[in-house]
Design goal:
CATH superfamily: Metallo-dependent phosphatases
Distance between the termini: 17 Å
Keywords: Glycoprotein, Hydrolase, Iron, Metal-binding, Secreted, Signal, Zinc
Shape: globular
EC number: 3.1.3.2
Strand content: 15-25%
Catalytic activity: a phosphate monoester + H2O = an alcohol + phosphate
Pfam families: Metallophos (PF00149)
CATH class: Alpha Beta
Mean pLDDT: 87
Strand order of the largest sheet: 1-6-7-8-9-11-10-12
Order of helices and strands: HEEHEHEHHEEEHHEHHEEEEEEE
Number of strands: 15
Bound molecules: 2-acetamido-2-deoxy-beta-D-glucopyranose
Largest sheet: 8 strands, mixed
Low-confidence stretches: 1-16, 157-164
Number of domains: 1
GO molecular function: acid phosphatase activity; metal ion binding
Structural class: alpha/beta
């Protein structure tokens, strides 16, 4: 009964919200819980241990009975897909993540490498016909009865402008003029977060906010996104971009920053010695993350290429909150 009510509220919110973000619905398990895997920076046709990571995701995915998978972007190296008929889609995705437990929706965001190819191809329904798991949108809200996942804020459009535009060409079709596009997306995300009545709030993007990996912090996101996430009590920000596994706790708010960008090439060996926030865990090698959610507990785990549990952390919600 309580769950039904919550679901109704969410539907109403969806219809009345003042943003243009696309809503996707995801069922929880019968007991109201959810579990999912997070992997990023992966598409290399099995190379650099991608296949080994995929195999272990299948094993752990079965044990946790995962409901879906989140990809944090840089889905296809080195330069996204060339078009909807690019065989890399099958060679790096369909024929790699073959385990039974991974035959679930894959909610995927776009990374900077994806923008070096044909972005519209990754967003296309044609890919969904080839492999129905594939769900890649520029930005969306994933509604469940337990959590809302706000995704793919395209924030790398900022960073790419300032840092790497000189060296590569990017497909900006559909997001021009970029400045206005970014301002609008930020406003939409803020408005969606403000309206959210969800127990857990998770935001996913490709780029780091905080990291001690090679890319480090992303100043644009620290300045413009992090304050919004703090204001609206987002529980977790999840990203890839740095090819590592990492858990950083903010010192000034309860938000947890989680990096899962270790789906293939890793071991960069470039680790910064300091971060303004508190680094709980960092692993330079390949692997992935799992999240298990109930009404009052989130369990976060990182696994390596052998399926070994590297790190585990629990977050508790107040059972009797003011709302
Ligand atoms: C694959 O994983 C093993 C174990 O972590 C590691 O020793 C090896 O360097 C990895 N291979 C590559 C190409 O990263």
């Amino acid at each position: 009964m309580a769950l039904c009510f919550l679901f109704l509220v969410m539907c109403l919110v969806s219809f009345s919200s003042g943003d243009d973000l696309q809503r996707l619905q995801q069922q929880t398990k019968a007991d109201g819980s959810l579990s999912f895997l997070v992997v990023g920076d992966w598409g290399r046709k099995g190379a650099y241990n991608q296949s080994q990571v995929a195999f272990q995701m299948g094993r752990i995915g079965q044990r946790l009975d995962v409901d879906f998978v989140i990809s944090t972007g840089d889905n296809f190296y080195n330069s996204g897909l060339t078009g909807v008929d690019d065989l890399a889609f099958e060679e790096s995705f369909s024929s790699i993540y073959t385990a039974e437990s991974l035959q679930k929706p894959w909610y995927s965001v776009l990374g900077n490498h994806d923008y070096r190819g044909n972005v519209e191809a990754q967003l296309s329904d044609v890919l969904r016909k080839i492999d129905q798991r594939w769900l890649c949108l520029r930005s969306f809200v994933l509604d469940t009865e337990l959590v809302e996942v706000f995704s793919s804020i395209q924030l790398h459009l900022w960073t790419t402008t300032s840092q790497t535009q000189k060296d590569h060409t990017y497909d900006w079709s559909g997001v021009n003029p970029r400045k206005q596009y970014l301002a609008k997306i930020l406003k939409d995300v803020e408005s969606a977060l403000r309206d959210s009545t969800s127990k857990w709030k998770i935001v996913v993007g490709h780029h780091t906010i905080r990291s001690i990996g090679v890319h480090g912090d992303t100043p644009e996101l620290v300045d413009q996104l992090l304050p919004i996430l703090k204001t609206y009590n987002v529980d977790f920000y999840i990203n890839g971009h740095d090819h590592c596994l990492e858990h950083i706790s903010s010192r000034s708010s309860p938000i947890q920053l989680l990096t899962s960008g270790a789906g293939s090439k890793a071991w960069r060996g470039d680790i910064k010695s300091w971060n303004e926030d508190h680094v709980n865990f960092f692993y330079d090698g390949q692997g992935f993350m799992s999240i298990q959610l109930t009404d009052n507990i989130a369990k976060i785990e990182f696994y390596d290429v052998f399926g070994n549990l590297l790190y585990s952390w629990n977050s508790f919600k107040q059972l009797y909150s003011a709302t």
